[in-house]
Amino acid sequence: MSKTILILRHAKSDWGDASLVDFDRPLNKRGKKDAPKMGQVLSSFDCVPDIILASSAKRATQTTKLVAKACGYKGDISWQHTFYHGTSDTLITALRDLSNEINSVMLVGHNPTMEETVSSLCGGNDIAVPLRFPTAGLVCLTTDVYSWNRLAKGNCILQWFVIPKLVNALIGLG
């Protein structure tokens, strides 16, 4: 059975309060509108994950909660402090540690890590798969590994990639 990996970059954040440290920056108005749309995409594609692992930074937690609510996700969210300044290896290690009963997972985090993770999982060590990942961008990857601990760089296939501008254009809001 194949495994599904959803990779979501947090939605647009608010830079208006210079007194806030980066970790505590919230979503801005556009981010609060875009995040639920990406949850609706998951619901429409019948792609609600079995588990969500997300950065504990404020903009990522807000994004995750809005997406989870909009797609009908009922499980617990695993807040990952290591995702905030983590690398693609950090995220891949988190995937390899998943229980094999889990068939789909969503990772929520930050750039450039999200771009690098997709590139690593689809391309491998020697091949770069460049991908510009705007805020609230959502990627779906699949892999035929039967056990998460066998996940390796280069053994995923990109199934689809959706960004808020595309969703807006498709539903006539763009």
Task: Outline the structure in words.
- By secondary structure, the protein is an alpha/beta fold.
- The chain has a single domain (3-170), classed as Rossmann fold.
- It is built from 5 helices and 6 strands, in the order E-H-E-H-E-H-E-H-E-E-H.
- The chain has a 6-stranded mixed beta sheet, sandwiched between helices.
- The chain is globular.
- The chain starts with a strand and ends with a helix.
Work out the number of β strands.
6
Could you name the CATH class?
A: Alpha Beta
The average pLDDT is 93
Binned strand content: 15-25%
Distance between the termini: 38 Å
Q: Please give the CATH architecture.
A: 3-Layer(aba) Sandwich
Which residues form runs of ≥5 with pLDDT under 50?
Answer: none
Radius of gyration: 15 Å
Helix content: 25-40%
By CATH, the topology is Rossmann fold
Number of domains: 1
**DSSP helix count?**
5
Which structural category fits the helices and strands? alpha/beta
- Largest beta-sheet characterization: 6 strands, mixed
| Element pattern in H and E | EHEHEHEHEEH
- Strand order, biggest sheet? 3-2-4-1-5-6
Principal-axes geometry comes out as: globular
Oligomeric description of these chains: single chain
CATH superfamily: Phosphoglycerate mutase-like
